Structure formats: structure tokens, C-alpha cells
Task: structure prediction
Amino acid sequence: MTKYVAFLRAVNVGKRTVKMESLRELLDTAGFKNVTTYIQSGNVMFASGSGNAASLSDKIEKLLLKNYGFEIPTIIRSVTALEAVVKHTPFPGIVPDKSLQVYVSFLSGPVGPHGPAVIASLQSAAETLHMTDTEVYTLVKKDLVPKGLDIIAQLEKKLGIPCTTRNWATVNKVIW
Result:
């Protein structure tokens, strides 16, 4: 059995309510093993005999649409892949606090050759980005950010693929 984490995009925002207890029951009934959730933002840990994250994502997205009535993009990483995300952070030694935060945006697929230019266009004194093949790390100096985390919304639009973002604490907590 491979251990995975499914990151559900934009749940429990507005009218897109998904109760974690109901989500755990749904995935358990569908045959996923050891299903647990972490906080209300759509972080689901589970085990599966399947080694194909893309097919697992597709299966979960179909279950969610059928049971909740709206599309929920789902991005899956194995726990091994998440351990590599943490190990290979481009911001080693950074300890997030009130003025400094690290985010990881999980990409749903390949970005293409325009990715580096997009990342470069989003850089600022307040926000430093680093892209790998499957993630974008963002270091935010909160005292320099004039308004919210608009950069996260821009990232998805400019890259042209779905992604979902978690803060560094959450990324570390969901590794089980």
C-alpha cells in the first residue's frame, strides 16, 4: 500500500462546503484505506494499492462531483513525494512566523516552457518564488505585502493549470 495525500482545491470556501467526516466516510466506502483528514481545507491522507496518482485523482474528483454536486480539483502526492518537497525546499532554515511565511502550490500537471517567465513576472521584494516540475514554493515577507495573498490566485491564472496551495506547517503536518 502506498500512502498518499489528496489536496482538494477551494473547499469550504463560500458555498463549496465539504464536511470532513462525510468526506472520510465517502472515501472509506469507495475502498480507500486509513482515510484521515487534516483541518477543514481539504487535506486527505489515505492509502491505496494503486500506484497511479492521476487515476486516483480522477476517481476522487468523480466521487466528489457525484456526492457534492460541484467540481473539486484534486491534486495527489505520495507521502514519499511530499517528503522530497520538504527536504528540497529552496528556503532551508526559514522558520515561518508572523512576518514570514512559506507556501507550496501543488501543480496539477506540467507547466510548459512559459513557466519560468511566469515565475519571474510574479517575483517582488515581498514574494520570492521557486518552481520545480510539480510545485511552486513561495516565500512571503508579510510586512511588505500590501494586500492579501493575491500572488497565489495569479499563479494559477498565469500558469494556466489548476493548482492548490498550502502553508508550510500544513505541508509538514500531512506527512504521515
The longest helix spans residues 53-68.
